[in-house]
Amino acid sequence: MQAPGNSRPAGEVAKPPQRRAVRKGAPPLQDDTLGALGKEPAPRVRKGKDKEPPVKAPAKERTEPLNFRVTPDFRRAFKRAAAAQDCKKVELLERIFAEWSARNPA
Q1: pTM of structure
Q2: How far apart, in whole angstroms, are the C-alpha atoms of residue 25 and residue 43?
Q3: pLDDT given at position 18
Q4: What percent helix, strand, coil does the chain show, rounded to 5?
Q5: What is the dihedral of CA 89, 73, 83, 90, to 10 degrees?
Q6: Of 71, 78, 102, which Cα lies nearest the Cα of 92?
Q7: CA 83 → CA 66, 87, 89, distances in Å?
Q8: Closest Cα partner for 44 from 22, 27, 69?
Q9: Are 46 and 57 in contact (CB under 8 A)?
C-alpha cells in the first residue's frame, strides 16, 4: 500500500540522488589517452600565453636579504618616490646608496 502523495510503497526509505563524478585538474595529455596510441602527440597550445615575456635588462643577482624596520610614514614616502621614478624600491635604494658613496669616499 502506498502513502498518499508518494510514489514509493510505505516503509521504503528514499535514496539520495546519485552524484556525478567530479573531475579535478587538467584533462590528460593527448598521448596519455587510448585514442592517441601510435600517433605523434599534438603540440599543446596555452591560451593567452603565446606572447613571450618582455625582455628586461639583466639585473645584478640579488641573493642577500637586507631587512630593517622603518616608520610607516617613511615606508609610504619611499614607496611613492620609487613609483615616481618608475623603479622598484630596491633599485631606488641602490641608486641612492651609489650616489651617497660617490659623495662620501671611504
Answers
A1: 0.44
A2: 19
A3: 77
A4: 30, 0, 65
A5: 0
A6: 78
A7: 20, 6, 8
A8: 27
A9: no
Q: How far apart are alpha carbons 44 and 31 in whole angstroms? A: 11
Query: In the prediction, which pLDDT does 100 show?
Result: 95
Across the 106 residues of the chain, what is the mean pLDDT of every consecutive 10-residue run?
A: 61 75 67 56 62 62 91 96 94 94 90
Query: How far from the centroid of its chain's Cα atoms is residue 105's Cα?
Result: 44
Which residues make Cβ contacts (< 8 Å) with residue 9, sequence separation at least 6?
1, 2
pLDDT at 5: 58
Q: Residue 82 is placed in which grid cell?
A: 620609487
> Is residue 78 a contact partner of residue 70, using CB atoms and an 8 Å limit?
yes
One-letter identity of residue 24: K
pLDDT at res. 11: 72
Tell me the backbone φ, ψ of residue 2, rounded to 5 degrees: -100, 145
Residue 84 has what pLDDT? 95
- How many of the other CB atoms lie within 10 Å of CB of 73? 8
Cα angle value 68/74/77 (rounded, 5°): 130
